[in-house]
Amino acid sequence: MLSVREGEKIISVYRRHPFVLALELLPLVVFSIIVVAAAFAVVFIFVSESVDLIKMVFFIMVFFLHIFLVAIFMELADYYLDVWILTDRRVISVEQMSLFSRVTYEFELEKIQDIEVDVRGILPTLINYGDIRIRTASESRDFVFKQVGGPTHIKDAITQAMRNYSAKKPGEGENISF
Amino acid sequence: MIRLVIFFLFIVMFSIFAVASAVLLYHFINFRFTKNQHNLLIISFIATSFILGFFEFSLFFSINWDAVASFISEKIHLPANSDIVRPPF
Which residues of A touch B (CB under 8 A)? Predict the structure, then answer.
């Protein structure tokens, strides 16, 4: 589990838009419905022929539903474990690449140079989700949070957090008297 | 004999699902953001898995697999002088 530093406050926690999760779960739900419908169709056809055959059809149906349940939970776990955390000092990015692959980045708010919001397509525009790309002072890479809901609002929240962080810290060249 | 074979296959597949579910649960519980988050989701998954597993085992042991095999072989209607070897049930 993630932990914050002493005195650090969490401002917001962001995840991908729920519509993206729904799109990923839709094929699994459709296949589940097809399996159940096919099972009932076979049972309807052979209803007067063999009780054991009907039981076998239901056994296969329950078996496939079990497979889909595990697959659905994997998608849910992947959705909930991808998270961006905005604190009053830094941004923490946790990305679950696969079940056994997880990447965590964090960068201080003062290191942020550019924030880019990318909303492309009809659905993302209508439903309001897109990518946020943050460029930092580090030359290694940009940080991208994909398919997040309300990206413009998040960009504004990060910008505000950066201003608050700069206002709290003593600036360069400030005279400190004892 | 056929019942044993099918039971062995079923147990192997069920074990794979059980291990995959346990690993998935451990991963989710260990890496969720706060300690008590998503408890309802986790409990729902565990409960549904147990219910489906119960139904799988109940249905499996209630099926007369020899009768099913006979029914299927009757429906296939292999000709008597066919070169295809009939299954031993």
Answer: 1-2, 13, 49-50, 52-53, 55-56, 58-59, 62-63, 65-67, 69-70, 73-74, 76-77, 80-81, 83, 85, 94, 96, 99-100, 102
pLDDT digits (tens, 9 = 90+) for A5-43: 778 888 999 999 999 999 999 999 999 999 999 999 988
Of the candidates B10, B13, B71, the beta carbon closest to that of A50 is on B71
- pLDDT tens digits for B32-84? 777 677 888 888 899 999 999 999 999 988 988 888 888 778 777 655 444 55
Instruction: Please write down the HEC assignment for all residues of chain A.
Output: CCCCCCCCCEEEEECECHHHHHHHHHHHHHHHHHHHHHHHHHHHHCCCCCHHHHHHHHHHHHHHHHHHHHHHHHHHHHHHHCEEEEECCEEEEEEEEECCEEEEEEEEHHHEEEEEEECCCHHHHHHCEEEEEEEECCCCCCEEEEEEECHHHHHHHHHHHHHHHHHHCCCCCCCCCC
